[in-house]
Amino acid sequence: xxxxxxxxxxxxxxxxxxxxxxxxxxxxxxxxxxxxxxxxxxxxxxxxxxxxxxxxxxxxxxxxxxxxxxxxxxxxxxxxxxxxxxxxxxxxxxxxxxxxxxxxxxxxxxxxxxxxxxxxxxxxxxxxxxxxxxxxxxxxxxxxxxxxxxxxxxxxxxxxxxxxxxxxxxxxxxxxxxxxxxxxxxxxxxxxxxxxxxxxxxxxxxxxxxxxxxxxxxxxxxxxxxxxxxxxxxxxxxxxxxxxxxxxxxxxxxxxxxxxxxxxxxxxxxxxxxxxxxxxxxxxxxxxxxxxxxxxxxxxxxxxxxxxxxxxxxxxxxxxxxxxxxxxxxxxxxxxxxxxxxxxxxxxxxxxxxxxxxxxxxxxxxxxxxxxxxxxxxxxxxxxxxxxxxxxxxxxxxxxxxxxxxxxxxxxxxxxxxxxxxxxxxxxxxxxxxxxxxxxxxxxxxxxxxxxxxxxxxxxxxxxxxxxxxxxxxxxxxxxxxxxxxxxxxxxxxxxxxx
Length: 499
Description:
Oligomer: single chain
Distance between the termini: 15 Å
Strand order of the largest sheet: 8-12-13-20-19-18-17-16
Structural class: alpha+beta
CATH topology of the largest domain: BirA Bifunctional Protein, domain 2
CATH class of the largest domain: Alpha Beta
Number of strands: 20
CATH superfamily of the largest domain: Bira Bifunctional Protein, Domain 2
CATH architecture of the largest domain: 2-Layer Sandwich
Mean pLDDT: 92
């Protein structure tokens, strides 16, 4: 069966190459330089009364084709949608119709003609002239429609991610997801800009990585003769700008983490980080809530789907403390547990731990196992243990074991992470040294000790609040997608498909 398909594909390609030669023999350039477009499909469909009988020119890819004797119909798809084209030999002449007969599904064409309605009331363009703009040699994947329903489409997820250009052609609803992604990012920029934030850029290649728990990608700069790392976060550089006198900065950028992949993780992803001088995490909670609601407003969204549940995004976001949630889920207060007790608890619940897992790692896995999947409604989880928050300030009026940090969860996924930032350089050095000890004991994701950053902090850093938001996860939530691969044009994949 596979051999038969391959043979058939080769035959189709050879047949199209013969058509390509015929076109050239006719003196037609199958790959011209330009075409003047006056209208897009949706503009014509929405303004038929104004455009009826008017001459227009459109361009796009042929996505359906019904060749008949002396008159034929086909659909041309552009970025905004598709429109039916009618071509009649008596109208366009022998030469033009001969060109049309050499067209295939997937070819890109320019059409000049007049707007009209068919007997079946479909808004169409009656062709005066057809121009071949790009001959398609590779055929499009099989996709058919019946009674308005599409079937036998290009549906295999692996193939769709690997050949996104085909996915966008055959499954135009995918394009809508990425258009919404663009609107979300634009709305975030507009919101931050309107609140006095300055967009900045920090190094992608860093001599020392930091700002998150993750393993980096490592590379070599030959001219400098030194190793460099792809950033895992923007945090430490953005804080340097706060130290330098900026009071509100943000960066929307790619970050890179050398980690496993699942429906919520891709090694290259988009992160928003913003830092605000003279505020704390209480201010940030209100600000983040307003920012996300603003994005929803821009998209015209009132509710979100999370599995079988609907989320009213315009209700006030909930707030709950880290250990209160763990206590409720586990049925006991684990805030005072030592490592031995935490290991026993994990063992009781058959929770696998990595070798030499320390206290912070055990808190993480317990939280992921017991609490996070249940956080469907927007919830700020507050007041994290200090051991897993080396860059956050100690909670005021606390016992020193808790920090002022929150994570926002929606639909069971973490969307944002924020701190009242630690600005005491002495305390910061102690915490970074503790992280270094964890690295020595085998935790490769523990944070590094950055002497230059500590020196910057010793210059004096104002009270500051900082936030990181995973853009890909936010887009997943706001567009109803269940995998991060569905909101990244070109997600990371193995070099060869598994099938």
